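Mods, move this if it's the wrong board.
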Amino acid sequence: MLAFLASIYIMENKLETTESKSSLQSLPRNIWAVTITSFFTDVSSEMIFNLVPLYLANVLGVGTAIIGLIDGIAETTASLMKVYTGSLSDKLGQRKWLAVAGYALSTISKPFLFIATTWEAVLGVRFSDRLGKGIRTAPRDALVADSIDEKQRGLAFGVHRAGDTAGAFLGLGFAALIVWLTERNGVDLTRHTFQIAVLISFIPAVLGVLVLIGGANEVPMKTKRTSAFPSLEGLDTRFKLFLFVVLIFTLGNSSDSFIILLGQNRGLDIVQIMLMLMTFNFVYAALSGPLGAWSDKIGRRRLIIGGWIAYGLVYLGLALSNAGWHVWVLYTLYGIYYAATDGVGRALVADFVPVERRGAAYGLYNAAIGITVLPASVIAGVLWQGIGSWTGFGASAPFYFGAALALLAGILFWRLVPSK
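Not the wrong board. Structure tokens:
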């Protein structure tokens, strides 16, 4: 919450000096409803899903290749669903209730982690949760884009990402408190601690669904698609090139679970890892709104390229790290990359496509990211610990790989995707 308030404070001071005199008060109700829903949902999700890789490794004894496979399958599931539900929202002319259904499914699935005692059971819960995310994400992003004027699009997505990430910050704080109260200075996570976090996480998840039901309204669409099936046909060439570059970048952007495991590998205990994640989310939330608003002024292309450069430098630093505090500092700086690219990238999609194709475009965009997470996470796990009799290249290898692809993607974006 402190991070979200910091973001609001920075934006208010920044917006007072701009020619447009944009203000947070002018943002419509839908933006705030979606932001609060994302806030509560991330309080819930971050309490447990950042503990999942530690639960798999410390309690169930699962290796990094399987952890990468679980994350990859979960994200790919979400991505495949995003493609269809985005297009479906274009055809129906309705975004809200698809988003509600997705949030509800994720909420219902989380408590089953309480009884998960095998990695297959954890995969089943992650599959269901990400299926819900896949249903909601594209319609939700399209609802945000439909609800705001083009001149404030970056600001709106920045505020949404700030609220989302402030929820993550608070959720991680709850997780750290639970670990501290139940394990004190424990180095490894226990099942008892994980189960407590799962039970408490259900409360904010329910609140998020209720806020979206009562707070958001549909935005009438003048034209609708005749088909619910996604297609690149007729979409702006810039959007297609952007998708291609995003695929290259994401192939090296494996699940952040590997950064959590790297922190433990370099000597951080469970509470320290939770605090590390909190500092990352503080930076991410504090900068998302201001950088989103800045993209309305200087252009989104520059910020995304700058964010990818920051990502590459952070990943190179992680590869070279040899102490826990190195990972902590670098992961905090990692928040700059997220703040400069996450909400801004979503706003850029809306810049490239007409309103009646936004649902499909967001589905394709999120799918391009999520589908590539499967090979990215599997590659990272294999590079780290190998497969079969091969023991891999060690903990630094996935991060060298990610840094190299970030550099390649930045060059391709700069050379291939025009600003206009």
